[in-house]
Amino acid sequence: SDNRSESEVLDLFGDLNVLTTDNLQNVVFMKLWFQVKLKPLLPFVSKEFLSNLGSKDLSCATYQTIVKGFNDEFPSLDKINHLIYAHFIYIFLSRNDTSDPGCVTITNGNEEWLKVNYGQYSVF
Q1: Do residues 85 and 124 touch, judged by C-beta distance below 8 A?
Q2: Residue 68 CA to chain centroid, in angstroms?
Q3: Mind listing the pLDDT tens digit of every residue in the chain (124 residues)?
Q4: Mutual orientation of helices 109-117 and 60-72 as an angle, nearest 10°?
Q5: Which of 7, 8, 27, 30 is nearest to 18 (CA)?
Q6: Which of 4, 39, 47, 62 is found 20 to 30 A from 79 (Cα to Cα)?
Q7: Cβ contacts of 116 within 8 Å, gap of 6 or more
Q8: Interatomic CA distance for residues 36 and 49, integer angstroms
């Protein structure tokens, strides 16, 4: 099917194994990837891609950069927004093995925390 071939392209184009530890911590790099390079492919991300991404050693800043990339495309991702929430956002924010579990230390209050960590995904 078309979805399968598009998903395979994304898997090939967005192979998460190419992300080094430095890249995972680099906001500029992640912004380039998720807000520019992968932008046209975001509607085709798979559950596996999202789960893998949520388990990577991201900083809160790089996580929030990725959320912004998804958030900017929220209307066009309507068929997979629930997957993005369940398999990336929820997974990452639930982890206890990050330097700032839940990404709570760099925000000022609940409203800002929701905005930077969930964006429009707070509806889920």
Answers
A1: yes
A2: 8
A3: 445 555 565 555 556 666 788 989 999 999 998 888 888 888 888 888 899 899 999 999 999 999 999 999 999 998 999 999 999 999 999 999 988 999 998 788 899 999 999 999 999 8
A4: 70
A5: 30
A6: 62
A7: 64, 67, 103, 107
A8: 18
